[in-house]
Each structure stands twice: as structure tokens, then as C-alpha cells.
Amino acid sequence: MRGRISVKKLFAAASKGSAQAQYTLGHCYEHGVSMPINAEEAAKWYLMAARNGDALSHYCIGTCYERGFGVEKDLALAVFHFESAANLGLTSVMTYVGQLYEKGVGVRKDSQKAYYYYREAAESNDGRGMFNLGRCFEQGMGTRKNLEKARSCYEKAVSLGHTLAGLHAARMYESGEGGTLDAQRAFHYYHCAAEEDKEAAFKVGKSYHYGIGVGVDQAAAVKWYMSAAERGDAHACRALGSCFQHGEGVDVNMKEAIHWYQEAADAGLAEAECDLGHCYESGKGGVKKDVEKAFSLFVKAAKKGYAVAQNDVGYCFEHGEAVAKSIKSAMEWYEKAAEQGLPAAQYNLGYCYYHYLGIDGGENEEKALAWFEKAARQGLTKAQCHLAQCFEHGYGVMRNAGKAVEWYEKASAQGYADAQVGLAYCMERGVGGKKNTRRAIELYRLAARQGHPDALNQLGYYFQHGVGVVMNSRKAVECYKRASAQGFDLAHFNLGVCYEKGIGVEVDAEKACKLYKRAAQEGIAVAKFKVGLCCEKGIGTRGSERDMGEAIRWYEKAAVNGLPVALHRIGECYLHGVGGIDRDEERAFAAFFRAAEANYRPSQVEVAKCYQQGRGVEKDEKEALEWYERAASNDDTPSTSQMMEADTATVSVEYLVSPRRGKEEELHTFHSESARSGGLSLSIPSPLSSTSISSKKSTVGSPTFPTPRWTGSNSSTPKWPPTLCVPTSPSCAHLRSLASWQQADEG
Description:
single chain, mainly alpha, 2 strands, 1% strand
């Protein structure tokens, strides 16, 4: 009864023009309160109340026109009523009207009106209005751009309960927009928005992961990554994959890592596609290796413009990994990534120009240098070290020792061992400044702590000879052993010398011979000669028997490398007919002459004798005298008359090992002082007599004597550029995946 009476009273009041009663009737008809739902009646009463100046009724009839509820749909009329409600002070609709003007829904776009209504809402302490006012200031929409005011509005919006505004405030504090860079404030506002926004949750996880604005807590990072990933955030999925792959905050689990990488990749995230490719490429952690699948993923991500993947595709083309080798294609992909500023790609592209790979002529030296410099200026240590070498040796640029030292210093300061060795070389030689042996030793020690074989070998030389340090043979041997264990050729040789002469260890001729063989197999010419001596003396041979035939083969190998003492020894063998080889004075003279032309004094003496006595060459006293005088002009040489009267000579040579400029597996490294300034003294026996040699018949044919490529102290600078290439060892990851997921643009 009361309900029926109340409805009657309501109708009566509404009929008399009560706006409140009219609104209430409209509400009852719209929602079926005490009467059946009737859209037309609801719209009629809302409209009557609106005409009587009721703000809420303006809003309600506006929604009716917007939806076509009880009236014909009409967005223009909807906007009219919404705006009327806002003008009557209905705060809740002000922001909505601003959005309609911003987007041009039912009305012409008008950023100034949008700004007006957002400001009105904000002044009424409406959180959404304050947030949108911040957007106006940030974007310069309807007003002048003012990032400081924008950030202030976002912070006020958060305090008014609009937590999503925290995402915008956090971004500004993170980037420094608005004049303040504050990681702690950024973390605070990301945390405010994290429960409602998946991106904010991901950012909170990242902050915990890397200690950005908060202490490192990898377990908390995984928790927030999981929260964001379960809401579909692709970057959080990728981050989880990385955590499971590397055991950060969770146990290593490659199955889970692949799962989350795949989730991110399925969402179209190029970075995750590239990560998956790396997993399949390496085949580690129980993942089946599949280079074809890896290449396919790299290409997919590269086509989306992801620079790291473009660099990977270039690498595959350069090395023929899962695709036909093509330097041209490699350079095209490297260039795409390099143009985006990826240091690894810039370095790789420079490397290709450096070696003239796939290029016919042109300004390759200059281009190589330009790309190295771009990568170096971004802090890539390999590029800094390589750029230093270019300045040091004048590759693509005028030589500039000061610049070389400057770039070595930058790479060295980052702990890059190759640069520390290069800088040490400059310090010990006074390249680009004053000579500083103490600093050189410090740098070699820093590099040696990282296991750098060249530095270890160099320290071994210093300890062996007491250069800048207290002489310590045992420490020398320790250094040589560590370097030799890494396959370092010069260390094999130097350790062999220690075992041969009992320097820091017990004399062990067989060990010495084995080490000489290892060094010889790596191409060290003087080691080849030493192996020949071992065979000649029966050291390290089967049954300790002398094998002159094998000795001569090793002498020939050393001679091919241009080692004068080896040429000299071959000459002696032909001169005296040792090792079953028939005497051949002409061949002996040819060998002596080539060694003599390389300024090897004992051979100069022998050439003089050959001319004097007519051995293997027409007798010529004038030529003999000229060669005796040439030999006499060398230091520590007997007088001309003494040499002319001598029958034999004890040969001693200070040999300079040619600096090796690198291999396919490694970047160029500078080699030890013993390889630069001599110091390896080889005592060669007096000319052999046939009676002192094993009766084994040699099967060696007539040796050839190439023009010696003597690289001793009188030689010219070794050919530049040295051999460099992108490593295929695990260190290559530095060039392949420099931009890790946390460094990538999360969008």
C-alpha cells in the first residue's frame, strides 16, 4: 500500500514540475524499480527533469541519446546534455566531456575545450580529471607543454586515488622528463600502479632485478614478473625466461625458460624470438641444438627491425651458419643493425671493411675506421682496442701514438685484457709518451689475472730476466706454464728453453723437445729449428737415436719461414754431406748466400770462404774480401784477417720471433717482449762431420731456398693490417648479444 501510495505521490510531484521527482521516475523506469522497465518513459522523465535544470538528469538523458535508449540515437544531443551537466557543476561528467572533445566524438575535435573541462574536473579534485590535465601539459594539448606541471598533476592524481597516473609519473622520474631524474620516486609510483597495470608490475620486477631505485631482490623480481606475465605482458614473459635460463631468483630451468620465451615470442616480441634463437643455436641446458631453427627465428626478429637479431643474421651469413656463406649479405644485415646504433654490429661491419671482405677496392680503410670509432665511442672495448691499433699502426688514418694510447686507456679502464696488453706494450716502449716499465708491468699483471696468455708469457720473460722485477725463475716458469696451457705458442717455446737449460726447473731435454714441437706446429720458426737440433742430438726421438734426416726436414721448415740460422745449418749439411745427403757445395753456397743476404754474420763468413776457396762458386778474392768486410762490420766480430784464417765458427744468434698478428679464433693480441726484442740465444754446434752422424739414409729431396722473410731487428715493420676476425669462441657472445633484454626498448 505504501509503495503504491509513494509512486502516486511521486507522479503527482513530477506532474507539478519537481525535477527531483522527474529524475526519480526516469531512474525507476530505466532500472525497473517498483515498475516495469520502460525505456521511452525513462527518457521522457529524464528529459523533463533536465529541462528543469537538473544536472544529473542531463547526464542520464545524454546516456540515453548516446545508447539510443528510449530515444533515437544522437551523439550530438548526447554531447549537448553531457556538457550541460558539466556546466551545471556535475564533476563526474566533466572529464568525460573533455574526452569527447579530445577525440571528436559527437562533436568537432577541440583540444582547448578538452583542456578546459579537464582543468575544471581537476579543480574539483577529480582524480581522472587531474590525470588528463597532466596529459594536456605533457603533450601540449590545448595549452603550452609543461613537463614539470604534467608530472605534478600525475602525482596529485595518485593522491586522489587514480593509481594508474602513477605509471606516467614513474616514467617521467625514470627518464628525467620534468627536470628531475629520480629512480626511487620512479619505483614508488610504478609500485603504486602495479596492482592495476601489467606494465607497471613489469617495471617493479625490473627494478628489483637490477636494483633500480630499490635494493636488489631477485626473488621479488620473479614474483612481479610472474604477476605481469600472467596478465599478458610480453616483456615480463621474456624477463621470466631470462631468470629461468640464468638462475636469477629461481633455479635454472631451461624448460621453463623456453616456455616463457615462447610466450613472449607468440605475442610478437622480436627480442624474445631472438632469445629463443640463441637457445637453439647454443643447444645448452638440455635444449636440442637446431641452428636452422635458430636462424629462422633470427630472421623473423630481424625483419621486425630488432638490431640484435639483424646482427645475428649477419653473423650467420658471414660464417655460413645454417645458410650459404655470403659476406655481401652479412654486411647488409650488419649495416641495418649498425645504423640503429648497435655497437656490436658497428664493430662487425668495421671488421668486414677492415679485411676488404666482399668489397672490391674503395675507401675500405676509412670506412672500417669510422665504424670502429662509432662502436668505440659507445664503450665497446673490442672496438676501442681495435681503434687504438689502427692509430698505432696507421691503418686508415695517420699514425698517432697519442690517440692509440688514449683508446687503449679507455678499453683498459674497463678491464679489457687485450687493451691492457696493448697499453703495456706502449708503456714499455715509450709509444705515445714516456717509457714507463713499472706501469707496463702493472698492466701485464692485470691482464694476467684474467688469464691473458700473452701477458702471462711477458711476465714470465720479466721474471726470467729480472726486467723491472726481482729475478725469479720459478715464477717465470709458472707464468710460462699457465700461458702454455692455453696453447700460447711463444710460451711453449720459452718453457722449452727453461726445461732445456734448467731455468726454474730440473733439466728435462725430452720435455723441452715436446714443447719445441708444440711451438713449431704453431708456426714459430725458431722452434722448428730447435726441433731440428733435438733430432740431430737424439733428444725426444725413438730410442734417443739421432735422426739427421728428420733434423734436416725441420731445418727446411724453419728456412721456409726465413730463419737465417736454419739456412746456415742446411748449408753446413750440404757442405759436409751429413745425414746421408750427398755433399753439394753449390747447394751449400746457395743456402749460405741467402742467410748472408739476411745479414746473418756466420753465413757471411761462409760465403766469404766459398768465394775465397771456390767452394760451390767461382773463386773470387774480391768478392771474398767484400763479404769478410761485411761480416767484420757486425758487432763483436773478429778481425777480417782472423776470419780468413779460421777453419770453423761457433754460431750464436740473437733471433727475433716475428710478431704474430692473430688467428682465426681470436682478436689480435700483442706478443711478448721476447718476441719483439730478441733474447733467445741458440748455441749451434760447430760444423758437423759425416762420421759423427747416424748412418740412416735420408729420404729428403733437394731442398729449395725461398727468399728469406727475415723479421729481425733490421727488418721493416710487419705487414699491416693483422689478421682479425669475430671470434667463434664463447667470447663472441659479446658481439652477438650485446643488447641484453634489460637493455632493449620495452616500448
